[in-house]
Design brief:
By secondary structure, the chain is α/β, with parallel strands linked by helices. It has three helices and eight strands. The protein has one domain: 2,3-Dihydroxybiphenyl 1,2-Dioxygenase, domain 1. Helix content is about 25%, strand content about 40%.
Length: about 120
């Protein structure tokens, strides 16, 4: 038996706005089921699920405490891609004292999306 993966489920009020934002990060839309209040976005091996909140205020409130950390290979190239696409960063690429090189982007509802790559020992 093995548990092999986790899929973050993040709040969104406007699923189309969320879809467009994540497409600017290089994700593609695997499913947009507005009648069910669900959006699924993918990039490489990463899958993110979004669920529709009852109001924009609720999405903003939940987004303040929602986050995910995505492990990356080639974070310098990803950072350059994001800069080219004019992505706004909460903080740009930094080397952290815990042995990671990481950056953070906040989506339109405040969900914190961190990207990190482990430094070589």
């Amino acid at each position: 038996m093995k548990i092999s993966n986790a899929i973050p489920q993040l709040p969104s009020f406007d699923l189309m706005l969320t879809k467009n934002f994540y497409e600017s990060l290089g994700f593609s839309c695997a499913a947009l089921l507005t009648e069910h209040g669900i959006a699924i976005l993918e990039r490489d091996d990463i899958v993110l699920h979004f669920w529709k909140t009852d109001s924009e205020e609720q999405a903003q409130e939940y987004g303040k405490v929602s986050s995910c950390y995505l492990i990356v290979e080639g974070i310098d190239q990803l950072y350059q891609e994001f800069q080219h696409n004019r992505v706004t960063f909460r903080y740009g690429l930094q080397t952290m004292p815990w042995g990671m090189r990481e950056m953070q982007v906040d989506d339109p509802y405040g969900n914190a999306i961190k990207f990190g790559e482990k430094l070589n020992d």
